[in-house]
Design brief:
The complex is a heterodimer.
Chain A lengths: L2 H22 L5 H19 L2 H9 L4 H22 L3 H18 L4 H21 L5 H27 L8 H8 L6 H32 L16 E3 L12 E6 L11 E8 L1 E2 L3 E3 L6 E2 L1 E4 L2 E3 L11 E11 L6 E2 L5 E6 L5 E2 L5 E2 L8 E10 L3 H5 L7 H7 L7 H10 L6 H15 L1 E2 L11 H9 L1 E2 L1 H14 L4 E9 L1 E3 L4 E5 L3 E9 L3 E5 L13 H21 L3 H23 L6 H17 L2 H21 L1 H11 L5 H18 L10 H11 L4 H16 L6 H21 L1
Parallel strand pairs in A: 15-16
Antiparallel strand pairs in A: 1-5, 2-9, 2-19, 3-17, 4-5, 6-12, 7-8, 8-11, 9-14, 10-13, 11-14, 12-13, 17-20, 18-19, 20-21
Chain B lengths: L2 H13 L6 H12 L4 E4 L6 H11 E2 L2 E5 L6 H5 E6 L4 E6 L6 E5 L6 H13 L1 E4 L2 E4 L5 E6 L12 H5 L3 E3 L6 H9 L14 E2 H12 L5 H16 L3 E3 L3 H17 L7 H12 L4 E2 L10 H12 L7
Parallel strand pairs in B: 1-9, 1-10, 2-11, 3-6, 6-9
Antiparallel strand pairs in B: 4-5, 7-8, 12-13
Classes of the chains: A alpha+beta, B alpha/beta.
Chain lengths: 730, 313
């Protein structure tokens, strides 16, 4: 088959596979499928060289103006579709794409049209990748890749042939075709298919490698965990202040079930502390409880029957991507009910702090379902609350010598009649009378709390929260200090909170017998004032893209990859089995493989497949582009061509292009020797190479005897040297 | 001896006499090998005759020289039939045209009638006298010279006759150094007389056959035809190149290939020869009031046209 015909055929096949992908995704209505399918079949027959179709098509001539009018019409319909009918970009865009495809197929004339066709096909296959989870998509996608390789190669080769005309005169067009009849030979056929297989293999290899590389690159300094403070057994006052200006990202929290409300702040609880000795906070109890496993990877975090369910504000599900930290704490909104992640075990302490047995060595992803407690109405108004003994013994402890603080607390809350009002009064006192400032170094003071409350009156969360806890305790209200992160940076593009080191926070949990531990925060929300400039929003867009990358590739962990490999291997086992029992059972293993593939595809995110497609196609194009020169050289010397002259002519054209890139183009009326002399004068370094190639070219092109393979490879070597010369020059 | 060597030797031989004119010598040899005739057009005294003489001398061939004057008759060239008493019949006495190399000196000084008597001889390589056809010896080559500077008492060659010359060459003044060499030479003998023949007639014929076998690639033929077409379509010319001109260019290109030691033509052969082979066959649209067009003008015109035709890659 001649190159031209094969090129047209493979182009239409490319469009056909892309279209099949769309049809498979069930995103094209029937009234659009039928005409497009007919057009595709006609185009295939036409490209395949079926004579009566060619003749019939030759009869029908439609002016380009009509096509343009049709195109504009299709665009108008797209707009209507977008605004009135589908009201969504994807279906409307797909309808438009299909119409565009049909029109392009009917107007394939110039190379430009073919390029448009490829662009449309690429978009179609991408759209279908995003929409389908059907197992049949896999073979169609592979076919698309095969067709793409063929098309790219043939496009290049036909372009090359077109660029090397014999003579540019009216009489020569016929001569030109007879001089270089380029046909698809056996060798070429297998070579191209081999390239396609190689491409797929390479891409798969890269796909498997990228998460590995990503683990190193995206995770920044590998092996070195982010240093956090405030999540160990003991917390000294003032340590959080050290990280309050660090913008390093600690985690990203998605709220998949949450509607777009209350995205202003989210408390992510780390650990709670009950004992204060005037200098630092610590846990009193060391009792660790392993959470019970309720399903694979799912742990039940709530102690059985600990809280009545009517006091709950609502359920928040969070998907958290936690960077590598030097702490084993798992952060979650208060209070975790269910924890889902690839953990062997999750432990909880007596104060509902979740943590792993040891700090994770890589970034982890887990999801938590939390139930947010709400203050029961009658506890707001109850003047006396009966606290259990276990609570009283733990959460009313104050350091010795805090009489001054106790006096302040009593003075502030003397108006209040109920515990809840007292709590609010103390909170309000702290909010109103103290100034938020990060430039407060109290870590070295002997009485940091008194210093904050009475002397400096400026501080940050680590001063506010302990002050409130101690004040509450002196007036008989059980409270505890909680450290964690206060997420305020909502990324509207990705739909998640970005949590940074500087979001580290400390707050207070106040106990109410029926409601449980209620979160209270005495710190003014100064830190929440994040600049919302345009830059900020662009940065957030970039951030969200990075998360997508994480989600689609980096999350694709070694385990998942192993699962795929297992699937494939089991599939191949099944295939082998099928060969051995070829006669007896034909269908079962195939369906087994298919169902496995289906499962694989299902577990893929549709977006993953789309991204894989993009990576494959872009990678392939880049590969071809990068190797274009090499492939051309190789093809020119090794591929069997119908005319022996073609090889040296291609080499010579390549040489011309190379020198032209250096700014020395050949005047059309100059002969090869004249041009060689010109190059010799203007570009001394290239002179010998050009002279050698020109001599071989003249001999091979115009004499009766074709060049020997040795001479050809010598010419190729010279062109290669010239190319490397230009690379150096660049 | 290889053909390249043979040709080299003849060029070297002529170069002993004609100093510093290797290009003109090469063209003369090309003309010889292409079975063409040569028109040398230049001012007197630059070596037109000497070139013709040396070429003829270098070949082991017969050489005749005809000085064209206004009273020269056709029979003075082709010969006459005279009555032979002993045989009782007319007997043909061959004229000076019956030689391998004929030098037609100052060809534009004679009448058109006499000039046209050369016509048949040049194109058909035969002469007809009294209904009898006499073939000329092979190889046969006419080297004509003419003086463009004087127009008094001259008869410019008709187009048909110009077309029969394969090439028109201009010798031009030699460079200073070369001219000094000419002066330093002993004067006792005409320099051309000292030359020894290096090529026999048979060898010349063999070389001419070799020229016919030279390969001209299809695209080159197209290129040549494109040039010829361009002269016909050019607005600068009122008369383009004839088919004989195209044929001549093709032959000359092949001959040049042989001279340069190849058995195939290159685009350079055609491009290089185009001015010499085509310029005397075209007529300029405007000759600026002059009766005849100048040599340089026509050559420049042809060169310009060639520069518009793309060379096949």
């Amino acid at each position: 088959m001649p190159f031209d015909q094969a090129f047209a055929l493979s182009s239409v096949l490319l469009a056909t596979t892309a279209f099949s992908g769309l049809v498979l995704a069930q995103s094209v209505p029937l009234w659009l499928v039928l005409p497009t399918a007919i057009i595709l079949i006609v185009s295939l027959l036409h490209a395949g060289g079926v004579l009566f179709v060619r003749r019939a098509m030759a009869q029908v001539t439609v002016s380009p103006t009509l096509w343009n009018v049709l195109l504009i019409g299709a665009f108008v319909i797209l707009l209507i579709d977008l605004t009135v009918v589908s009201r969504d970009l994807l279906p409307a865009g797909i309808h438009f794409l299909v119409v565009l495809l049909g029109i392009k197929l009917l107007t394939l004339q110039q190379r430009r049209d073919y390029r448009h066709l490829y662009a449309i096909s690429l978009m179609a296959i991408l759209a279908s990748a995003a929409l389908t989870t059907d197992a049949w998509y896999v073979p169609i996608f592979l076919l698309y890749l095969l067709a793409a390789v063929w098309t790219l190669l043939l496009y290049h080769l036909t372009q090359e042939t077109a660029e090397t005309p014999a003579v540019v005169t009216p009489t020569s067009t016929a001569a030109c075709q007879t001089t270089f009849p380029s046909r698809i030979t056996h060798r070429f056929f297998w070579l191209t298919n081999g390239t396609a297989v190689l491409t797929v293999t390479l891409t798969l290899a890269i796909f498997f490698l990228i998460p590995r590389i990503g683990a190193g690159v995206v995770q920044k300094t590998s092996g070195e965990a982010l240093r956090t403070t405030g999540f160990s057994d003991r917390v000294d006052l003032g340590t959080i202040g050290l990280v309050k200006q660090d913008p390093q990202i600690v985690m990203r929290v998605e709220l998949p079930d949450q509607p777009a409300v209350e995205k202003d702040r989210l408390y992510l609880r780390g650990l709670a502390y009950d004992q204060y000795n005037g200098q630092s906070w610590s846990h009193s109890g060391t009792r660790q409880r392993s959470l019970s496993l309720v399903a694979e990877g799912t742990f039940l975090a709530r102690p059985a029957g600990s809280r009545p369910s009517d006091s709950l504000l609502g359920t928040i599900r969070q998907d958290i991507l936690l960077e590598t930290l030097d702490t084993a704490v798992l952060f979650a909104a208060p209070f975790a009910e269910l924890v889902n992640g690839e953990f062997l075990t999750v432990q909880a302490d007596a104060m509902s702090g979740l943590h792993l047995p040891f700090p994770p060595s890589s970034r982890i992803r887990y999801s938590v379902t939390s139930q947010v407690p709400q203050l029961v109405a009658d506890e707001r108004t109850a003047s006396i609350l009966a606290y259990p003994d276990s609570i009283r013994s733990h959460y009313l402890q104050v350091p010795v010598g805090s009489q001054q603080v106790a006096d302040l607390a009593h003075r502030v809350s003397q108006q209040a009649t109920t515990p809840f009002e007292r709590t609010l009064a103390i909170q309000q006192h702290l909010l109103k009378n103290y100034r938020y400032s990060l430039e407060t170094d109290t870590a070295t003071l002997s009485h940091p709390l008194e210093e904050f409350l009475f002397t400096r009156k400026t501080g940050y969360c680590e001063h506010y929260a302990p002050a409130m806890v101690v004040m509450l305790r002196t007036v008989g209200i059980p409270a505890r200090l909680v450290t964690g992160f206060l997420a305020t940076e909502w990324n509207e593009y990705g739909g998640y909170f970005t949590v940074r080191q500087r979001d580290a926070h400390a707050w207070v949990e106040v106990y109410f017998p029926h409601s449980g531990w209620i979160t209270m925060d005495p710190t003014p929300t100064v830190s929440a004032a994040v600049a919302t400039s345009r830059w900020e929003s662009i940065r957030r867009l970039g951030e969200s893209l990075r998360l997508q990358w994480d989600r689609l590739f980096v999350r694709y962990s070694a385990k998942d990859q192993l699962a795929v490999v297992h699937g494939v291997r089991e599939g191949s086992d099944a295939l082998r089995e099928r060969v051995s029992r070829w006669v007896s059972s034909l269908s079962a293993p195939i369906s087994q493989v298919l169902s496995r593939l289906t499962r694989m595809v299902r577990t893929f995110q549709p977006g993953t497949l789309g991204l894989v497609t993009v990576v494959m196609v872009v990678g392939m194009a880049l590969l071809l582009l990068m190797l274009r020169d090499r492939i051309g050289l190789w093809a020119a010397t090794h591929l069997p061509t119908a005319h022996p002259q073609l090889a040296i002519v291609q080499l010579y054209t390549r040489m011309l292009r190379t020198v032209e890139r250096h700014g020395l183009s050949k005047p059309p009326a100059a002969t090869a020797s004249e041009y060689a002399r010109l190059v010799e004068q203007e570009w001394k370094a290239a002179g010998p190479m050009v002279a050698n190639v020109t001599a071989l070219y003249l001999q091979g092109r115009f004499s009766r005897t074709p060049l020997t393979p040795g001479e050809l490879s010598r010419a190729a070597e010279q062109v290669g040297r010239l190319q490397s010369l230009t690379h150096v020059a660049r | 001896m290889s053909s390249a060597h043979t040709i080299r030797s003849i060029q070297d031989n002529i170069a002993l006499v004609i100093k510093g004119k290797t290009h003109v010598i090469e063209m003369a040899v090309v003309c010889l090998l292409a079975r063409g005739h040569l028109l040398l057009e230049d001012v007197p005294g630059v070596g037109k005759t000497t070139l013709a003489h040396s070429l003829a001398r270098s070949l082991d061939c017969s050489f005749k020289r005809i000085q064209f004057t206004s009273d020269l008759l056709p029979s003075d060239i082709v010969g006459v039939s005279m009555f032979n008493r002993q045989k009782q019949g007319f007997e043909f006495i061959p004229g000076p045209i019956f030689a391998n190399v004929v030098l037609a000196d100052e060809i534009n000084r004679t009448t058109p009638k006499t000039q046209s008597s050369l016509l048949e001889a040049m194109s058909e390589a035969q002469v007809s006298v009294d209904n009898q056809t006499h073939p000329l010896e092979q190889p046969f080559m006419v080297i004509a010279t003419q003086n463009p500077a004087e127009y008094h008492g001259t008869f410019p060659l008709p187009e048909s006759q110009l077309d029969r010359f394969l090439m028109r060459l201009c010798i031009g003044y030699p460079a200073l150094e070369e001219e000094r060499k000419v002066l330093d030479r002993p004067h006792s003998l005409h320099p051309a007389e000292t030359l020894e023949a290096v090529l026999s007639a048979r060898e010349v014929l063999a070389l001419q056959t070799r020229v016919d076998q030279v390969h001209m690639e299809e695209s080159l033929t197209d290129y040549l035809l494109a040039i010829v077409q361009a002269t016909r379509q050019s607005e600068l010319l009122s008369l383009g190149v004839s088919t004989r001109g195209a044929l001549g260019l093709s032959k000359a290109a092949k001959a040049l290939a042989v001279v340069r030691g190849r058995d195939y033509c290159l685009p350079d052969d055609i491009k290089e020869l185009a001015p010499s082979v085509l310029s005397h066959r075209v007529m300029l649209n405007r000759t600026h009031g002059m009766r005849t067009q100048s040599f340089e003008q026509a050559e420049r015109m042809v060169l310009d046209i060639v520069e518009t035709v793309p060379v096949p890659v």
